[in-house]
Amino acid sequence: MLMTKMIFGVGNTLYNNWKYIKKYYNPDLAVDNNPEKWGKIDEFTGLKCIAPNDILSYTSPEMLITVGDPYSAECIKNQLYNMSIKATYLIEMIKEWSVSEPISNEINIHNENKKIWLLNTPEHDNLGDHLIAESELELIKKIKPEYEVIEVTDMEYLWHREKLRAIITKKDLLVITGGGFLGSMWLYNAENTVREIITYYPDNKVVILPQTIFFENNERGKKEFLKTSRIYNNHDKLTICLREKKSYEILKTMLSGNSKLHLLPDMGLFFDYNVHVKRRENIGICFRNDKESTLCADDKKYIIQIAKMQATGIKFISTHSGKFDDRKNRAEQIEKKMQEIASMSLIITDTLHCMIFAALCGIPCIAFDNVSNKVSNVYEWIKELKYVKICTDLYDIDSMIHEMISRSGKFELPNREKYEEEIKKILDN
Length: 429
Fold this sequence. Notes:
Elements: E1 4-8, H1 12-16, H2 18-24, E2 29-31, E3 49-50, E4 61-67, H3 70-81, E5 86-91, H4 100-106, E6 115-121, H5 127-143, E7 148-153, H6 154-159, H7 161-167, E8 173-176, E9 179-183, H8 187-200, E10 206-214, H9 219-233, E11 238-242, H10 245-254, E12 261-263, E13 282-286, H11 297-310, E14 313-316, H12 330-342, E15 346-349, H13 352-361, E16 365-367, H14 374-379, E17 388-390, H15 397-404, H16 416-427
Parallel strand pairs: 1-2, 1-4, 2-3, 4-5, 6-7, 6-8, 8-10, 9-10, 10-11, 11-12, 13-14, 13-15, 15-16, 16-17
Helix pairs in contact: 5-12, 11-15, 12-13
């Protein structure tokens, strides 16, 4: 049976490497996530471009990924894995990712000071993850002032694994950023990195800040659960914080001892923000468009229709900035998003951190759950807020909008001091 060779990613990385790709791989087809390219012949390579969903209609597909950064490559690998398609990848270093800048500018790596390495913070455009990273940095510096804190982003880690292994000492404390990426759903661009860190540093204390963990209820999910369990249990100095009870119970079945587990709020809830924005009459709507969403297209249309009937207007918002962000403009991007959300009369969303953004801003919010239930589970930390509610029945949305739209409040995380003290004890080496 002949193999159909394909390349995933029609752009500069493909074009810059086309001479070698053509000579050594000689692909038959191109694939891209951009619908504008589907069904067309690429002028540079002469290859027909198809949609990802069309791959399986071809005989024995093999894939070469041609994109310009490791994060995108890992996302595409995850996409193909779910389709049971074999993939290798070629990455051209378009941008020089380097840990030399934060190391040289923020810390003398050769000194004897205590060090905390905050690992795997985002360089993608999800501002919810940036909110977490910003909160983590500020909190760690507040509760552990005797430590020097070095941040290493996800892409810096991917590019410089070996450099970091040579720099990090056994005395250093390794802290992995919080979020919702543990488990089989985001395997290639997240879970595997966490596994690797835990495996590479057996002698270091490793702390995972509050996370959601989720394994799909299929053969793949079961396989990855066992793999994660084996890796986690092989590390004697691993502490894992979970941001909701469901994940906590999953980890209890996975780990041999419960002493390594802690139940703590999402780190975004520790963010300090004072809003001074005039509220308008628009309802802000923020929906997921990925595999975590439980709302179908008709559900979203219905919600939008009802919202239009009860507001002067609606505004579609996103917790994604639309471009790569890093720590250089992280605070600015978060501030901009906070200002946007704070100007709404009401937020309707199925994303966790849009709910958290709204809560921090004191703006009423109606939230729908996602596939891993992280929205409803994290909501338990803030359920006392009268201006944030979970909608469990789509057809309640009309009455809920009417009830919630005039509400507001001032955010305070209940028992914040207690949680900060617990995190301080966890980080004690």
